[in-house]
Write a structure and sequence with these properties.
By secondary structure, the chain is an alpha/beta fold. It is 32% helix and 20% strand. A hairpin with a 2-residue loop joins strand 2 and strand 3.
Length: 463
């Protein structure tokens, strides 16, 4: 069984920097401002040829009950309860603080093994800077620099008794070279594994509440204040017999209103979650219905080629449900013509109402997004479509549509060969697209059509 390691410490000691270093990707937002991390985040870490589960947690603070800081501490405690060993980070430049001592005493009382890690120990004097960690009474402190990747060999030696039973990583190269590569993941290349599902929307529409309701636990922070969620928080989940990678995201405001650096980073994390998703649930507030920003987010999802489901939350507050539902569906059809037939579900995240319907819509959208049509069937259909309504002639010369092939799914993508592709009107391309949706069941998913010139490349007479 793979070991689990939790990183803990007071705010701004470098927990997220170490998390990113060990997972080898910039998965967690890192900023000098304390309190950036508010939910615990999980990743698969690698160190000296061994991999293990790693938790990044919110900064520990001694806060009053009912405050955001107290809720963040609860999140850290939940992560710790699942861990085999904890890394207690302190800032070696500042030295051990009373808050460090307070939480070291608390960690000692949990009975979970704790390794003291002195972060920000760059250069020759790093080892001397770490010595103050002995005063915490939790053993020999390990000096590291998470930002520069120094001291990882010592960290491995301290962790080895707890993580070596985990899986062995056979990646080539220096086992302690934990560089942070750029993210080159592409959801279009993912054909196996869990369904990647992102929950997106404007601030304060109930995204985190919906995530918690689906999971059946308070996994992410939720509350009436907008902007509580700052990062994209992935959670591995099983619904029925389906494995799902569920991602809660920060609310997206209009770009003109995003001025703070931390919010820009939150937006980037949400946009990355959309790119890596397979299905995106856009949560909207049913009491105000599809505002301009909702439509902007929906168009962004379509542009990225992801399957889209719209969830109208707070439906329990709607008095005339029939009229409201008709208004919602009409607004969707008129405002999102490029994705006709998008699935719309009404939910109440607080009560859990209609969540089963939402998940059925997610699976249906996913199946449509993955659908393929055989080349023979596609071209018989194209011939009948053109016979009913041929493309308009240009300067008296007809435009011939010769052949069509589906090159990929996820989303459904087609190449259409024509005698004069630049002369095919946009209106006629939409006619073909709408026909594909209607006749092959591609409603509610992005459909991409590319025109090319020349004859049928698969016909031996023209090859």
């Amino acid at each position: 069984m793979i070991a689990t390691v939790a990183i803990l410490g007071r705010p701004n000691v470098g927990k997220s920097t170490l998390f990113n270093r060990l997972v080898g990707k910039r998965l967690a937002i890192v900023e000098r401002e304390p309190g950036v991390t508010r939910d615990w985040k999980e990743g698969e870490a690698y160190l000296a040829g061994v991999h293990f589960r790693l938790f990044d947690t919110p900064g520990l603070e001694d806060a009053k009950r009912g405050t955001l800081e107290a809720a963040m501490r609860v999140q850290a405690e939940r992560a710790l309860a699942q861990a085999d060993v904890a890394l207690l980070l302190f800032d070696a430049r500042e030295g051990v603080t009373p808050l460090d001592r307070h939480f070291s005493d608390w960690l000692r009382s949990t009975g979970i093994p704790v390794i003291v890690v002195a972060n920000k120990c760059e250069g020759r004097g790093g080892t001397e800077m770490a010595l103050e960690g002995f005063s915490l009474g939790l053993g020999t402190p390990v000096p590291i620099s998470a930002e520069h990747g120094e001291g990882l060999a010592g960290l491995y030696e301290a962790l080895a008794p707890y993580i070596e039973p985990g899986g062995i990583d056979d990646r080539p190269g220096d086992p302690f070279d934990q560089a942070l590569p750029a993210d080159n993941e592409d959801a279009d290349d993912v054909t196996e594994g869990p369904l990647h599902l992102a929950i997106v929307g404007r601030p304060n529409v109930g995204k985190s509440t919906l995530v918690n309701s689906l999971l059946g636990e308070e996994r992410v922070l939720a509350g009436p204040e907008p902007g509580i969620t700052r990062d994209a928080i992935p959670v591995d989940w099983t619904y029925g017999d389906r494995a799902i990678r569920l991602v809660d995201t920060a609310g997206l405001r209009r770009r003109s209103q995003v001025t703070a650096r931390i919010e820009r980073m939150s937006v980037e994390a949400t946009e990355r979650a959309i790119r890596l998703a397979e299905v995106v649930v856009l949560v909207v507030d049913a009491t105000v219905m599809l505002e301009r920003q909702d439509l902007t987010i929906a168009r962004r999802v379509v542009e990225e080629g992801r399957a889209l489901v719209i969830a109208a939350n707070k439906w329990d507050l709607i008095e005339d449900a029939g009229t409201a539902l008709g208004h919602l569906r009409d607004r969707v059809e008129r405002s999102l013509p490029q994705i006709k037939g998008v699935l719309t579900v009404t939910v109440s995240a607080l009560s859990g109402e209609h969540e089963a319907q939402l998940m059925r819509a997610v699976f249906r959208a996913y199946d449509t997004w993955n659908r393929r049509v055989s080349t023979g069937e596609l071209n018989r259909w194209l011939a009948a479509l053109v016979e009913r309504h041929p493309p308009p002639a240009v300067r008296g010369r007809p435009v011939r549509l010769r052949y069509m092939v589906q090159t990929k799914a996820r989303p459904p993508t087609f190449i259409l060969f024509a005698s004069r592709p630049t002369h095919v009107p946009e209106s006629y391309i939409r006619y073909i697209e709408n026909g594909l949706r209607r006749d092959f069941g591609f409603e509610g998913t992005p459909v991409r059509i590319t025109l090319r010139g020349g004859d049928n490349p698969f016909d031996p007479k023209t090859g």
